[in-house]
Amino acid sequence: MVQFFSSYTYYKEVPKKLSKLENDVNGFFTIRHPRSRQKMFICRRQNSDCIIRLQNLYITSGDIWFLRLIMLSVPCSSFVEARTCGENKEVFSCFQTAAVARALVTDYDQAEKCYVQHMEQSLASEMRGLFACMTVNGYPTVCIYDKEKLRYHMMKDHIDKNKMSVAAATNKLLMQLNTLLNFENKKMSDFGLPMPKSCFTELEMAQMSYTKDSQLELLRSLEASTPNNDEQQHFLIT
């Protein structure tokens, strides 16, 4: 299925330029969607030989399993269309969240309930382990990561104990989660989760150590406690 969109396109009606090629192996063929029964004309993008491999797709396969779930219910012509849902045509970040929005996933909140149940009595490292365990076993966990309050409990040791900024702590969290998934030969992007930034430069580390709001507050407090002298004020104005 990964190869399909790059090799084929579909039409709801036969284009005039292809009308003579119907049932031609190098032309196009027709199928009907198993649920909507909509007739579609499938045409190869390039008339060239290709090799594909078919294999079973399990729920532990990651985000691609949710793509399969969407395609069983909704005819799609591209990956973007598969991630698009709703009256406002919202494009979701991954197939998992798109499948949840389409109500194709039942009891999707069970993972979040389990996570919340352990939140107050578990260490941050234990929460990271729980999150990784649920992720590799096919539970929809993107909704947990996307919620700031829930995500905080996986990195509160970095923020509260190590005094890291939210940006630095978030990247540290992604690195640790990705390491846990690597034990199962998986990575974050396999499940529709963001990949960590491999490393930071010295300048980036310094920039992430401070936030705009905190620095503005510090500046205002300094202006109130130690106001500028005449020379300093003249320099700022000019």
Q: Sum up the overall morphology in one term.
A: elongated
Structural class per helix/strand content? mainly alpha
Q: Ends: how far apart? A: 63 Å
Estimated radius of gyration: 25 Å
Describe the strand arrangement of the main beta sheet, using strand numbers. Answer: 1-3-2
Tell me the number of helical segments per DSSP (H or I, 4 or more residues long).
12
> What's the helix-strand series?
HEEEHHEEHHHHHHHHH
Polypeptide structure, described:
It is a single chain. This protein is mainly α. The chain has three domains: 4-44, no CATH class; 59-101, no CATH class; 110-199, no CATH class. Helix content is 47%, strand content 8%. The chain has twelve helices and five strands. The protein has helices at 4-7, 63-71, 79-82, 95-101, 110-119, 124-136, 142-145, 148-161, 166-182, 202-208, 212-225, 230-237, and strands spanning 8-11, 28-32, 39-44, 84-85, 90-91. The protein has a three-stranded antiparallel sheet. A two-stranded antiparallel sheet has the order 4-5. A hairpin with a 4-residue loop joins strand 4 and strand 5 (90-91). The model has no long low-confidence stretch (mean pLDDT 82).
